[in-house]
Amino acid sequence: MIIDHTNERVLDVLDSREKARVIEWLRAGREGGLLGSLEEVTIDMWESYAGAVTEVFGAGVRVTIDRFHVMKNFQDGLTEARREIQRSLPKAAAKALKGTRWLWLTNPENLTPEQQAELATLKERFPALGRLSDHREALRQIFEDTTIRTSEEGRSQLMAWCDRGQELGLAALEKFNGTLERWRNEIANYFVSRSSNGRTEGINRGIRTILWRSCGMTAFRYFRLRVLHGFG
Predict the structure, then answer these.
(1) Using the 8-state DSSP alphabet, how is residue 35 labeled?
(2) pLDDT of residue 38
(3) Bridge partners, 9 (sequence order)
(4) Are 115 and 103 contacting, i.e. CB atoms less than 8 angstroms apart?
(5) How many Å apart are CA 217 and CA 225, to the nearest integer?
(6) What are the E-state strand segments in the chain?
(7) Please, are residues 78 and 132 in contact by the beta-carbon 8 Å criterion?
(8) Cα separation of 221 and 229, whole Å?
(9) Cβ atoms < 10 Å from Cβ of 187
């Protein structure tokens, strides 16, 4: 699905996410004038999307991975890292952590005072988990820092954060650190205009409603027309 964030609409729904298909659509849009003033493309971490944009537009169009995809990816790593720590604890201690996942994954300002106090107690009792939680919050604060206005500064902050994370010595974080390193330029581009794919996620929910109401669709062309009618 290709979204025009400026005008808040679906431009098209493609029958494949393969690189060749995306390139075909982008070239047609460039040559037809639809994408003549394109400055930035926001994507998730799918190599074909980034490669297609670069092949069609070169360095003239900024490719950005928005912060929410980065944080979602890190949350998955965080959960595995938390489990890694829990597996190293005695049974009684590990049992005490049962049912606390929500506390570790929720932004502090969204916790009640009682939940914040409970989390503080857990962090004191389990310092390794506490350091991991603080590491997560440090990443979020980088994205929240509006004084970071260039991709170069953002990239520097993210790489420094990665280096600090190495000190935690958690194998589960290595995969995320590798992802961050591989996509560092596209992630750092977020700080230029702070573009987000949030609207795309909202439209995706609307599209799922179309599928529910129709009890599924066997013909892609009908599905595409319904989406363009509702969101184009």
Answers:
(1) T
(2) 92
(3) 4
(4) yes
(5) 11
(6) 2-4, 9-12, 40-43, 62-65
(7) yes
(8) 12
(9) 25
Q: Whose CA is closest to 207, among 198, 195, 216?
A: 216
Structure confidence at residue 216 (pLDDT): 65
Instruction: Tell me how far CA of residue 88 lies from CA of 59, 81, 83, 99, 104, in angstroms.
Output: 47, 11, 9, 18, 18
For strand 40-43 and strand 62-65, is the pairing parallel, antiparallel, or unpaired?
parallel
pTM score, two decimals? 0.84
Q: Three-state SS for 113?
A: helix
Q: Are 157 and 142 in contact (CB under 8 A)?
A: yes
Rg of the chain (C-alpha set) = 21
Angle (CA) 220-31-194 rounded to 5° is 75
DSSP label at residue 110: G
- The token pair at 80 is 């595995």
Long-range CB pairs of 6-13, under 8 A, 24+ apart, other chains included: 8/199, 9/231, 9/232, 10/203, 10/227, 10/228, 10/231, 10/232, 11/232, 12/224, 12/228, 13/223, 13/224, 13/227, 13/228
H or E stretch covering 205: helix 198-213
C-alpha to C-alpha distance for 224 and 128, rounded to whole angstroms = 49
Residue 189 CA to residue 181 CA, distance in Å, equals 14
State pLDDT tens for residues 152-186: 999 999 999 999 988 888 887 888 888 899 999 99
Answer for the pair 57, 26: CB distance below 8 angstroms, yes or no. yes
Structure tokens at 232: 């184009």
